[in-house]
Amino acid sequence: MYDYEKAYRRLTENHAYLDEGDFVIENCPVPEENCLYRLDPRTKLQTSNSFRGFKFNKKDFVMELIRSRMVTSEKDITKHAVVMNRHAVTEDVHVFTYVPLHASNKLPCILYIHGGSFIGGSATYVHEVCKALSEKAEAVIVNVAYRLAPEFPFPCALLDCYRALCWCRENPAGLPVNGQIAVCGDSAGGGLAASLTLFERMNKESSIGFMGLIYPCVQLRESTAYPWDGKAYKIKQDHKEIVESLLSLRAAMLVIEALYLKQQGKADDPLVSPIYTKDYRVFPPSLVVTAEYDYLRLQGERFAQNLCEQGRPVRCIRYDGMEHAFMDRLGTYPQAEKVLDDIAETMKSHFQNF
C-alpha cells in the first residue's frame, strides 16, 4: 500500500526545526502529504505501542501476558553480511556481538540496550536493529541481555549493563574495536543507557563517548518539577487512537515503577530517572530521538533541553505521527531505518573530532 523506498527518501529530504531559544528540535514529518498532527497511516495497519488498549490493573496483572505483547516484527534491511556471535560475560549476563563482515579497520563499539519497560523485551528482539546499526554506523555492536524485573529488580539491570560495558572495554573476545565506545538504547534501554553513563562517571570512569537515546524513559514517575501535560500534544485527526495510546502508557508507568523498583530504589534517584541528574556535564555528546505521540516524548525532550542548557552537545529529533516503540517495526516503518541513520551520522561526527 505504501512505497517504503519512496517514503524513506522523503524522510531524508524533509526536515523542519522547532526553535526553543538555544534549544532546537529537528522535526521529521510524516513522508506522506496531509498528515500534520495525526498518526502516520502505517500505524493504522500495525501499531507499535504494545500498551495501546491494554487495561492495567495491579491486582490482575499477568506478567506473561504483558511480556507476550512486547514482541517485535523487525525485518532484515542490511545490504551486506554482518557476523553475529554470542558471548558469556558472567554466569547471569551474556551479549550478542555484530561485526560487519567487510570491516578492514578497527571500529567503534556501540553497547546496545534493548527496551521493554524494564520488565520485558529481549536482546533477541533487536537482532535486526543491531545488524543494521552495525552496517550503517560501521561499528561493532554489543547487545546486552540483562536480567528483567520483577524477578531481578533495580539495580540488577543497571549492574548487568555495567558488566557488559566493562566487557567491551576489556575486549576478551578480541573484537576489532578501536577504543571508542558509545551506548545506545530504546525506551527503558535508553533510560538505562543514560543511567549507565552516569553510573560510570560516579565510578570515576569515562569510557562512554556518545549516547544515542531512542524515545528514552528517563523519568519513571511524574513530578511537579517535570510534569506531564497532555495539552502539549497537538491533535487534528485520530484523536481517539492517540489519546488511548498516550494514556495507556501513562497508566502502565505506575505498574512498571512498582515492578522495577520493588522497594529497592526511589523513582527520583538519578540512577533510576536520569532526568534528575544535577550536573549534566557528566554526559557525553548525545542524540535524543522522540516520537510525536509518545507519552515519553516530553521527558525525552526535556532531558535533551537540560543537556543543551548545561552546555552539552546534543541533537534532538522528533518523528511526527509516530507512537512509542516504532523501532520495533524496522523495515515496515521507514522512520525506524532513518533513526539508525541519525545515530550513525551523529556518532561519527563526534568521534571524528576526537
Keywords:
354 residues; alpha/beta; AB_hydrolase_fold; hydrolase activity; Rossmann fold; Alpha/beta hydrolase fold domain-containing protein; ten-stranded mixed beta sheet; AB_hydrolase_3
What features would you describe in this structure?
α5 packs across α6 (188-202). The model has no long low-confidence stretch (mean pLDDT 93). With 354 residues, this protein is of the alpha/beta class. The protein has helices spanning 4-13, 42-45, 63-69, 127-137, 156-170, 188-202, 239-261, 297-309, 334-351; strands at 16-20, 23-28, 82-88, 94-100, 107-113, 140-145, 177-186, 208-214, 286-293, 314-323. The protein has a ten-stranded mixed β-sheet, with helices on both faces. The protein is globular. It contains nine helices and ten strands. Helices cover 33% and strands 21% of the residues. It has one domain (4-351): Alpha/Beta hydrolase fold, catalytic domain (Rossmann fold, 3-Layer(aba) Sandwich). A hairpin with a 5-residue loop joins β3 (82-88) and β4.
